[in-house]
Specification:
- This protein is an alpha/beta fold.
- The chain has a single domain, classed as TIM Barrel.
- The chain has 8 helices and 10 strands.
- The protein has a 6-stranded mixed sheet, with helices on both faces. Strands 2-5 form a two-stranded parallel ribbon.
- Helix 4 links the parallel strand 6 and strand 7.
- The longest helix is centred in the middle third of the chain and has 14 residues.
- The protein is globular and about 45 Å long.
Length: about 210
């Protein structure tokens, strides 16, 4: 189980905020003979909705996004949007600002409601201030509301609570009321970030 900490902001749609307070289900990516199996994806999503989930999360860690082409990611998000009546939080992880923004653009064009991004991985010696600047640069051009996805066991670094606080302060209220805000933190870590965030942010489950 993971925890989603919700950044309180009136700029976020109530549908997203309500969904993140509930259960968000990361989805696997079904393949058959090297191709996306949309029939199995349909069955999976129907099963999850029948079970009462509040949102779905395609193209995340569970969906094995690093092994997918950009076109496969687009197809999966679009197919998921077409098949569910709950909000879709699309994985949009990448190691550069430009690639992350492009992934968010693809998710927005496919109809996703929000995107989840990670700290740059592979280059794992980033100082917290570098990660803050990365996230702020993404938020400046993001086409969707954004969740920060803290998964240090995969990225090699955690998103520090101080980084979250700084990004949230900048991203909660867009200066022109057009830029999508930071809506929360998807925390898959096992350390102090949870305790630090739980004291100030609302909590949902995944």
């Amino acid at each position: 189980m993971r925890t989603i900490f919700i950044v309180p902001t009136e700029a976020t749609s109530m549908a997203i905020r309500d969904a993140l307070r509930g259960i968000t289900a990361p989805t696997v990516t079904p393949f058959d003979d090297g191709a996306i199996d949309e029939a199995d994806l349909t069955d999976l999503l129907a099963h999850l909705e029948d079970g009462g989930i509040d949102a779905v999360f395609p193209c995340g860690t569970t969906g094995e996004f690093p092994s997918l082409t950009t076109e496969e990611q687009r197809r999966i998000v679009a197919a998921t949007v077409d098949r569910v009546d709950v909000p879709v939080v699309a994985g949009a992880a990448a190691t550069s600002v430009a690639d992350t923004v492009t992934a968010i653009d693809r998710a927005a064009e496919a109809g996703a409601d929000a995107a989840a991004i990670v700290a740059p991985y592979f280059t794992t010696a980033n100082a917290p201030d570098g990660n803050r600047r990365f996230f702020e640069a993404v938020l400046d051009d993001a086409a969707l509301p954004v969740l920060l996805y803290n998964i240090p066991q995969c990225t090699g670094q955690r998103i520090e609570p101080e980084t979250v606080a700084a990004v949230a302060e900048r991203g909660v209220i867009p200066s022109d009321e057009v830029r999508p805000p930071l809506v929360g933190v998807d925390d898959a870590g096992t350390d102090a970030i949870a305790a630090a965030l739980e004291t100030t942010l609302e909590v949902g489950r995944q």
